[in-house]
Amino acid sequence: MLSLLQLCDSNFPMGAFSQSFGLETYLQDDVVCDSESFARWLNIYLNEQLVHADGLAARLVYDAIQQDHPEKVWELDRKLTVQNFAKESRKGTQRMGKQLLSVAAPLYQVPLLGTYSSRIDNKESFGHPAIVFAAVGEHLEVSKEQTILYYLYSTVVGLVQNAVRAIPLGQTAGQKIIYQFQKKLEAATKEIQDLDEMDFGIVAPGLELSQMKHERVSVRIFSS
Fold first, then answer.
1. CATH topology classification for 19-215
2. 75, 76, 84, 63: which is closest to 21 by C-alpha?
């Protein structure tokens, strides 16, 4: 379990520090401007986009690996990519997935990740961090629930650190938000366990629109 925690470190080199996934659009529109408004945005992002896309995909990937069904993993890789309509967020997620894979594959020696890397090189797959994270968790025999929880946690921590820089928030305010979200992360993990695969890809339109509009913000420090 401790080995998987390494992937949760906000300093892990996967490029999350350069992605806001639409948050910066809300900053420019003055919808998010302080810790309270950021916490509201983060709560929506967690319970809409993360739960129904990355989180559910991580659960399905974990199951597919245990059932020795790699084709299901490649199918989920494609679905995660094509259902992400915002170009910047789609490309940013792919970069994060490839970067995480480039470090995790030699570090953990997960056979599936070697295949995944080859498929990406051959343009047969795209790359997504949720898939890499789930594969590592399953390989290390971390429970499915813990793997999903750690993935959600690492994503939330990365977004909080980006908000600390961008809004800006103080480090103490950022840590308070992370603490406040612990119960929310547990609840989100539980919800993911109860979802049907048909629930995959349900995302709040406002989040998608903000990610699309990010290409046109006048001043920005993030790639998406």
1. Urease accessory protein UreF (1.10.4190)
2. 84
